[in-house]
Design goal:
It is a single chain. The chain is an alpha+beta fold. It folds into 2 domains: 4-79, Ubiquitin-like (UB roll), CATH 3.10.20; 84-158, DNA polymerase, domain 1 (Orthogonal Bundle), CATH 1.10.150.120. The chain has 5 helices and 5 strands. The chain has helices spanning 26-34, 85-96, 106-119, 125-131, 143-158, and strands at residues 4-11, 14-21, 52-55, 58-61, 74-76. The protein has a 5-stranded mixed sheet, with helices on both faces.
Length: 162
Amino acid sequence: MPFKTEIRFTLNGVQQTATVHAGMSALVMLREVIGLTGTKYGCGEGECGACTILLDGRSVNSCLLFAVDCDGRELTTIEGLARDPRAEIVRQSFVAHGAVQCGFCSPGMVVEATYLLATQSQPDAAAVKRGIEGNLCRCTGYQKIVEAIVDAGQQVAAGETR
């Protein structure tokens, strides 16, 4: 049986304890141990961004993060952004701009866009493209996603909520 260890961390604002295996990724811990399936498994190699979460407020690919490295840290998933006003504006803007098709990349894109808007005021299209370059979308061609994030940034900067 593989080595197991217990870790403690904050997940979406709530203290958690989980028993994880050596070598287990944070993505597997979130999906299979804790049962939060909003964070998607896309490639397992950090190339697609479907597994994007916030670790201590910074955007990371959870498939590349060992679960044991979450000990004592703060994790925020797409589910945890449900109460974040910026994330709500991003979600609404994605819908308004038709920036979702199959929806598989959407959780990672929303997490990444929310992080971008938390770190950069009113990013233009070029800044948005740089900000989401680690997140792949196989359906939209990105233009509507970029437009949605630019619009969301303008709304956030104006202090708007819908």
